[in-house]
Amino acid sequence: SQTIHQWPATLVQPVGSPLSLECTVEGTSNPNLYWYRQAAGRGLQLLFYSVGIGQISSEVPQNLSASRPQDRQFILSSKKLLLSDSGFYLCAWRMVDTEAFFGQGTRLTVV
Amino acid sequence: KQEVTQIPAALSVPEGENLVLNCSFTDSAIYNLQWFRQDPGKGLTSLLLIQSSQREQTSGRLNASLDKSSGRSTLYIAASQPGDSATYLCAAMDSSYKLIFGSGTRLLVRP
């Protein structure tokens, strides 16, 4: 069966520090991968999505970037965090005709 | 650009009541539509997926319908229970594989 792993679960980082959040999927090949951010009490904002290795589409211009170095690995990064980067970050995967499945999320607090 | 809207933003009902959650989307050229449940501080759990060629899907007390021509989907919950209390989110996937979310409906089922 397929599983998705996202870590860490919580993270407190100072302003200006770098960020790296990792998401991996097991049990499937060539999934579509997604990064979302959810502000408190709000919906999910699509940040990046990828339909294959090295193929990244960015939805929101900001100081975040994403990479897909392997088929089932999706990484969200920042060189210098801002206070406004605080939020709940969620990774998801799906095949074209199937449901999307989400990781448990990373709660990032930038202080 | 696809926009997804959910009404109402919040709903409080007594236990046992049947209820309907609404989701509308601006671009009818969707690939599929998915309903999720989110408990506080948690990731998303998939409830139902409706392909663009389908009119409805059922799972237990849940029934989701899709009307592409009018840009609407509804989630019907029968005989609501306190354990149904959560935020319910709908998401539309377009032909470029972007998954766009509504802002959700916060449901409280009172014992």
What are the SSEs and their pairings?
The complex is a heterodimer of chains A (111) and B (111).
Chain A: E1 3-7, E2 10-13, E3 19-26, E4 32-38, E5 44-52, E6 55-58, E7 64-70, E8 73-78, E9 87-94, E10 101-102, E11 106-110
Chain B: E1 4-7, E2 10-14, E3 19-25, E4 30-38, E5 44-51, E6 56-59, E7 62-67, E8 72-77, E9 86-94, E10 99-101, E11 105-110
Summarize the structure in words.
The complex is a heterodimer of chains A (111) and B (111). Chain A has strands at residues 3-7, 10-13, 19-26, 32-38, 44-52, 55-58, 64-70, 73-78, 87-94, 101-102, 106-110. With 111 residues, chain A is mainly β. The model of chain A has no long low-confidence stretch (mean pLDDT 92). Chain B has 111 residues and is mainly β. In chain B, 0% of the residues lie in helices and 60% in strands. Chain B is built from no helices and eleven strands. In chain B, a hairpin with a 4-residue loop joins strand 9 (86-94) and strand 10 (99-101). In chain B, 35% of the residues are buried. The A-B interface holds A 6, 32, 34, 36, 42-44, 46, 49, 51, 57, 59, 88, 90, 92, 94, 96-105, 107 and B 31-32, 34, 36, 41-46, 49, 51, 89, 91, 93, 96-104.
Could you write a compact summary of the structure shown?
The complex is a heterodimer of chains A (111) and B (111). Chain A is mainly beta. Chain A contains no helices and 11 strands.
Give me some keywords for this one:
heterodimer, A: 111 residues, mainly beta, seven-stranded mixed beta sheet, 0% helix, 59% strand, B: 111 residues, 11 strands
Mean pLDDT of chain B: 94
- The gross shape of chain A turns out to be globular
First and last CA, distance of chain A: 38 Å
> What is the percentage of strand-forming residues of chain B?
over 45%
- Mean pLDDT of chain A comes to 92
Low-confidence stretches of chain B: none
